[in-house]
Every structure is written in structure tokens, then in C-alpha cells.
Amino acid sequence: MKMRAAVLEEFGKPLVIEEVELAPPKRGEVLVQLKACGVCHTDLYTASGVDPSGYAPCVLGHEGAGIVVEVGEGVQSLQKGDHVVTLFSPECGECVHCKSGKTNICLAIREPQGKGYLPDGTTRLFRNGEPLRHFMGTSTFAEYTVMPEIALARVPQDAALDKVCLLACGATTGIAAALYKAEVEEGSSVAVFGAGMVGLGAVVGAKLRGAERIFVVDLSDVRLQQAKELGATDLIKGGPDAVAKILEQTGGFGADYSFEATGNTKVMGQAVEAARMGWGLCTILGVAGKGETLDIIPRYLITGRKVQGGSFGGAKGRTHVPKLAQLYVEGKLPLDAFVSHHLSLDEVNKGFELMEAQDGIRSVILF
Fold this sequence. Notes:
There is one protein chain. This protein has about 375 residues and is an alpha/beta fold. The protein has two domains: about 190 residues, Quinone Oxidoreductase, Chain A, domain 1; about 140 residues, 3-Layer(aba) Sandwich (Rossmann fold). The chain is about 25% helix and about 25% strand. The chain contains twelve helices and 18 strands. Strands 3, 5, 6, 9, 10, 17 and 18 form a seven-stranded mixed sheet that branches. It is globular, with a radius of gyration of 20 Å.
């Protein structure tokens, strides 16, 4: 079938809206008609050419939601008409990682996915008869996509797709980090560094877990105010004295839980330092640049702090995303507050511009 898609032709250049061909789903695969897709920083990161694992040409996009229109042979958990959220982080339930219960990083299709291919090592995307690679196994800057069954999460039919599409990446990363990865305790104190999509998600997750105090650190007064509206109790302007202010408000010990959501290694260091002496847990969510390192003073660890990472916030896509979507339907997850702009596919590059200008939290493409 023919469709329109946003193609990354060359790093550092605007995406090009083109007509491409999409082959039918093969065994274990599903054809999805996309209805909405968030414009995520990861897309911009790859388009810029900074990502060392990036490749071009390819169809970008990974924060999608849509409706199943066809299923391939062997597909059992999905059927035509189901509403789904795309998952760059699949969940097969059968690999050694999935069975361990210790991680959400599924190994089933990791190798071909990282190279721009579907599980059988080929693509379903073509342009003028030539193969065109997928992005993150999703390629949702397009009217349709073909994806593995294990990389799609079924969501309630009454969940607005232009909102739950954010659960495909940004919103889940922050929310799940607080709910499932760090398991924030009721009555605890939390410090969140960065009030973008991921950081605000951590605020929402911490509030759902019943945190008593939620400190949010950011350079933007606008974003700090948004954090307050979503449940932050203490707002701190970003800078070298941010940790000192958190220590001052916590008896000199620090927050029970800290989350970093900026990708800045200096801020990561602050997040570690702001975690409580004795049992503080720091969760790193931001993606640092190639070759950058995080320096941690050993004394912080010796005195009881712990540091962990959280790809996709530790969420298991097919297990947790439907639960989060249900919370949204029940009015317990304020995803509407994250959507700042609605765009058309032709305006995808405007989405990048809005992001770089820090205009709003998330732009969503409507198909």
C-alpha cells in the first residue's frame, strides 16, 4: 500500500514528507493505522546526527497510537479494530530477560530493531522499490506502520489516542519510573531534576504513590509552574545551589527519592547528591551525549545512596502501558496537561522547532 511518511533523508536537515510503500504484515506482525504521534526529543536527537547509532534514510517517529487494521499469521493477542500504543521497548514474555522479572529490557528483537529492521531482518517500508529502514522498530511519522505483535500494547477503546500516544515513550518513562522502578513510598520526599515531559511524568507518578513533598528543579519558571499544577510542592530554580536548597528543606539529609530527567551529566551529579544519606535512591532517566561520563563521589554511595537507570522508566510495555491508559480513562492520569500543540504530518518539522524553543511540553501529530 502507498502512504505518506516523514523521511529522514540526511542528518541535520528537515524531514521530507514523501509517498512511500508499506508491505503487508508477515507472521507475528500487525498493520496499524496511526491516529496520533508525539514528537519526542529522541526523534530530534537522531535527526540531528548526534546519535551515534542513528542511520538514514529512514522513517522516524516512535510515540504513536492507532487502530489495528490487519493482523499477520500467528497473531493471537490483537485483532482488527483494537486500539494500540506502539512500543519501542517490546515485551515478548519468553526471552531470558522477560522471564527473569528483573528488567523490562526484552531481548527478542533487539538486534534487528537496532539496525532498522523488523524481526526477520527485512523492512516493510520501500521507496521507489528500494528498502527504507524503520526507526526504533516503530516508524510512526507515517499514516500506517507494520510492527511486531510483541511491540504493541492494547489500550481501552475510550482512551483518547492523541493523549495515550504519549505513553509510548515520554510520559511512561517518567510516570513508570516513580510507580514501578523506584516504587516511591507513601509519605516520602521526592526531588525531580528537569520539568520536561519525563520529569513532569515523574511528578505525576510520585503524586500517585502518595509522596508528601515533591521538589522540582528547572531553569524555566513556566515549567516550574506546570510542575506545581501537576503536584509539585516545592519549586527550585536550577543552578549550582539547587542541592543545598533541597538539603536545607530536608533536615540536611536529602530526598528519599531523586529523579534526573535532563540528560545533563552535571545535573545527574546533583540528583545523586540530593538523594538522602542512608537510603536515598537516585534514578537516572536522561540520555547523555556520546562519550560523556557521570562522576560520583564514592562517599555518597558509601553513606547509603543508590543509583539506578530506568529505560522506559522500567515499564514493561504490554503489561504496564494498558494499566496507565486505564488510569487516564479513570481521570487519575492527567495526560491532557502534557499536550501543548496539535500538528499535521506536514508540520512535523515545526514540532522540532517548538521543542527546541521549549514552547509547551509535547506536540502531537494528528493523522
